[in-house]
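ok new one. same drill as before - structure tokens go in, u give me an amino acid for every spot. 460 of them this time. try not to just spam alanines like last time pls lmao
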């Protein structure tokens, strides 16, 4: 099932304004190492009609070609796309472009005999949608890479969207979402051809090059998602059980395979013996109990395992084997779990986790019994004593109220990204804990769970 968000009335208005501003044509001055092959190639360079910060370059030729593009602007250094595969009809996309900016490009097309043909020209990107919020960026040190993040809004305060930010915190890719959608988390696909977005109980697969989005049928999916194998997604799914006249809601970890098949990995109801539960955990409300309220899912490729966070009646973190579906360990402030978490302040509401190694992780703590100031805790597991200790590492300088979500990621460049979601702030810290960058959104907008990568292209 394909879904084109741009049929949404407000999105259409945004893009009609955008199309009026964008430069949809390009000037191409081509020259070639082999003039005899020049006239055989039909080449088109154009700004994408759905995402005006993407430039699509297409060729149609009688013989197979492969190619790459070098591109730059007056204020940006030259970048290059990976070399494509040999095809008679091929496409290369220029990504990470600033709005209303003229870019110079040099296209290199090579045939199977090794003959290279070059095309040079300029193209101007379109404008940002007026429905995107203003972002205020404070830079304290140089930063690298790109961040994919949903922009969430309260009802009546703006339009939700999905954006990519460049190292300077500028929007270089975006999709406007339907007004009533509630995006929570987004991840880049491993092949960097598309991104995945959790919207309510639905997953969307959105191509980076501006093609139509696809809805993935994931009944009762919620909060968070990760890609395990290429094009295989794992996500949290609600589960229900009747107990003494009370509906108990809990969670499972499931995968959706490339063919659409859904496979259950682990279900909390099947592993009650792995956790110390009391009758009060099941009967805190008269008719409904949110037993676990899973809200963060992480995956470790090192040992093929998941880590899931619970912040319902049962509060704690569980590590699960993907291959066997067994619980490896659990960490909780309650006794009876694999590790008892000792904290200076009792954690009341928590969200995202960033895995450091098999004995350490960072923990987003929204609220404690003593404070409503959101902070980031470092958790250390002590295997011999079956204890886990915690200490604050970020957030004590400012008292930010984060009543929903709260994201974390350890970036490939060694820095830590903290998303103070509903407070409308994102921050990047270096390995010494020093602030590198702060991004704040205009009033009424917050940030969902984000995903940071060093490049928008998958180089071999």
């Amino acid at each position: 099932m394909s879904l084109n968000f741009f049929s949404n009335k407000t999105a259409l208005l945004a893009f009609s304004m955008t199309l009026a501003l964008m430069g949809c044509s390009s000037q191409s001055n081509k020259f070639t190492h082999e003039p005899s092959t020049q006239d055989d190639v039909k080449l088109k360079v154009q700004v994408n009609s759905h995402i005006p910060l993407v430039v699509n370059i297409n060729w149609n030729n009688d013989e197979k070609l492969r190619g790459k593009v070098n591109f730059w602007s007056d204020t940006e250094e030259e970048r290059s796309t990976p070399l494509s595969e040999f095809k008679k009809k091929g496409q290369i996309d220029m990504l990470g472009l600033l709005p209303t900016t003229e870019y110079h490009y040099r296209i290199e097309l090579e045939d199977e005999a090794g003959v290279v043909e070059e095309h040079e020209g300029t193209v101007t990107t379109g404008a940002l949608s007026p429905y995107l919020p203003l972002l205020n960026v404070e830079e304290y040190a140089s930063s690298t890479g790109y961040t994919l993040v949903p922009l969430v809004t309260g009802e009546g305060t703006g339009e939700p969207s999905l954006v990519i930010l460049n190292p300077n915190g500028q929007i270089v890719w975006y999709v406007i979402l339907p007004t009533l959608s509630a995006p929570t988390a987004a991840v880049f696909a491993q092949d960097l051809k598309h991104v995945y977005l959790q919207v309510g109980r639905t997953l969307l697969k959105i191509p980076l090059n501006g093609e139509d989005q696809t809805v993935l049928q994931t009944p009762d999916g919620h909060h968070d998602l990760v890609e395990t194998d290429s094009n295989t997604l794992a996500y949290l799914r609600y589960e229900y059980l009747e107990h003494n006249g009370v509906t108990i809601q809990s969670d499972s970890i499931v995968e959706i395979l490339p063919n659409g098949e859904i496979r259950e990995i682990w279900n909390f109801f099947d592993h009650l013996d792995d956790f110390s539960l009391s009758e009060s955990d099941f009967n805190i409300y008269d008719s409904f109990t949110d037993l676990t309220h899973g809200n963060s899912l992480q995956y470790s490729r090192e040992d093929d395992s998941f880590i899931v966070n619970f912040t319902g009646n049962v509060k704690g973190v569980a590590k699960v084997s993907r291959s066997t579906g067994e619980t490896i360990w659990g960490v909780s402030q309650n006794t009876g779990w694999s590790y008892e978490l000792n904290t200076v302040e009792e954690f009341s509401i928590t969200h995202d986790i960033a895995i450091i190694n098999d004995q350490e992780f960072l923990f987003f703590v929204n609220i404690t019994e003593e404070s409503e100031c959101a902070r980031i805790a470092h958790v250390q597991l002590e295997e011999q004593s079956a204890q886990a200790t915690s200490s604050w590492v970020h957030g004590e300088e400012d008292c930010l109220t984060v009543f929903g979500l709260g994201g974390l990621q350890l970036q490939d460049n060694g820095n830590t990204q903290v998303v103070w979601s509903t407070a409308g702030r994102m921050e990047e810290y270096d390995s010494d804990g020093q602030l590198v960058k702060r991004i704040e959104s205009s009033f009424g907008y917050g940030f969902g769970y984000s995903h940071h990568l060093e490049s928008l292209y998958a180089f071999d």
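The longest strand covers residues 55-73. and btw The domain at 23-124 is CATH 2.60.40.10 (Immunoglobulin-like).
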